[in-house]
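User: I want to check something. If I give you two sequences, will you return the structure for each one separately, not as a complex?

Assistant: Yes, each is folded on its own. Here is the first sequence with its structure:
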Amino acid sequence: MPEPTNPEAGALAGTAGAGTAATGTAAADTAAAGTTAEAITVVEPGPVSRWLSAQGFGHEGLEPDHLGIETLAVEPLFLPLIVAALKASGFDYLQCQGGYDEGPGGRLVSFYELVKLAALADQIALASDPAGTCHALPATARPEQVRLKVFLERDGDLTIPSLYGLFRGADWQERETFDMYGIHYAGHPHPKRLLMPEDWKGYPLRKDYVQPDFYEMQDAY
């Protein structure tokens, strides 16, 4: 993102060019301070964000992705309440749950993709003829979708309430995220690794993961 221009700093730098070395140094310092200030990005609330705010649910709006999907940050404690409210409002399908690591020193993130699938099916039904052929629905039509993110400090508590009670599809997805990133999902009925052996050390997709020097062959049967 381009850094903001500070006209006062620029003027000082220009004056310093014709002045003494001391004045020039001071002007350069002022210009540097002005140009290193970070611009603040204001995110316009989307429809889901406005609805959650009206219902009294705390959250933070993030920038939409390249497809324009609304993205929100929520606290771990409030995740089940917010997801339950969204499910009751029509977001009836957990399309995806996963995680990622922001990088060395960064946070771990658990994300959730919620979709209004039944609403899209209704649109298709209304746009179809008796033979089931859809004529009026645009080819680019997509179901309404929202992405939720929970940010966790890598050296802090890595526990999030499980969404298994709301969406059974969270079962293996939460297990895989635990297996790869070490994020624990409280209340999950089967809190075990999905891909790696139970006694495996570390979480392979974390950026701070140290690959072992050797592997012990285990009996697959």
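And separately, the second sequence with its own structure:
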Amino acid sequence: MKQLNVGFRLLRPIIHGLIIILIFSLTYKIRLVTDLIPGIQLHVPLINYRETMMYARITSFIFIGLGIIKSLYELHKPIQKYFQTFTKVWLYWLVTITFIAYFGQGFVFFFGISRFIIVVSAGFVFFGLFFFDQIRNYIESRIHKRSDHKIIIVGSDTLESYKAIEHIKNGFSFKTEFIRVKDLPDVELEKYFMVVAVGSFEKELLQHIFEKTRFSYTRFYHISEGFFLEDVVYSPEAINNIIALEYKNSTLDGWSLIWKRLFDIVGSLVLIVVSSPIMIAIAIAIKINSTGPIFFFQKRVGKGNKLFTFIKFRSMFTHLSTGGKYGGAEAEKLYAQLIASDANVRGHILPKIKDDPRVTKVGKFLRKTSLDELPQLFCVLWGTMSLVGPRPHLPNEVEKYELWQKRLLSINPGITGYAMVFGRDSLDFEEEAKLDLYYIQNWSIFMDIYILFATFGVVFKGK
């Protein structure tokens, strides 16, 4: 159901573009009819179909671009807010395409673009796209009503809460249920499509609801004039004309997730191609230096607290590496001794062993330059990791997380990250977690680009 809904919405900008091109084509043919208005014989215009269609394609890309800039195609935009944004985008689009037609005449468009085509097409575009979106909304609402997805409203025991619930419960196209606060412990909130908390709640209770929904696709809204959570990402939304706050783990939502994923795919492919000679040389060096496999595989915890296979170049002697496939119980025993010794210079959740005797000569170089991380580019390509994100940790390390630290699991772990660049190995885990949470809550594609370039600088300096 979710995949169908997201896929349908992702097609929206493409369909918008096709509708715009179709409208311009039809308007062109209408303009060629000289007796369109009864009693008036219009002259045959000197317009070129090829130029008109080139103009149509340009205008369609402009509309889609403006829509993306103005967040028209957000995956979860309320209907009222969507049409307000749509009107603004259409007006900006109309001004832009008029400007292009006027200044492009005789330069880009030799025959010029008919003013009739521009005006009539613009009107048809507004009503045509409006009509398309109405049909889309109707189809979505029918799908929602037949789906198993439900919305649950959690109300506090106040008169204001009951009034608000009565007002908003008819504003949803999904099946809706209602519970009181006292029934909350017995309900599996993560199974619902949306949770709406109405009324004043204690901070601990709001935090409880948020923590129960943060790993699922459940959306969490809060309607209240009282206390709101302050240490999470939130955005105001209208639910049946009542303002609510939607609590989120991250700014990575909707189209932001798509842009980050596209950035990861393109970036990982480029880096794999560029670094392939280096990876081949490293593989040969590992084989010459010590016996054992080239790669080290391990289960790490990724997005949503799910395990994934983590890969890197082997930097330790095989018989001293932890894990059933490697050194086994003896390696685990040695690791425990090293953690308990003075060699552990960091301690806490993430120990760091100084002058680790388990590391090979080649491994020391790989770790110092971070070249042992290169195979993780394939994890990025597969979608289990990202180029930039929090450090991926072991299951036994994640078990020691405090409640607020578990928000690190709301996005894919990264090869590099905000904390890894600006703190490297000098930070304790609490400081590292705070830096990574700052990244999660303030993500932008430009931040990812900046961190990647900063990573190259840190690696080249040998820090």
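Because they were folded independently, the notes below concern the second chain alone. The chain has 15 helices and ten strands. Residues 255-289 form the longest helix (35 residues).
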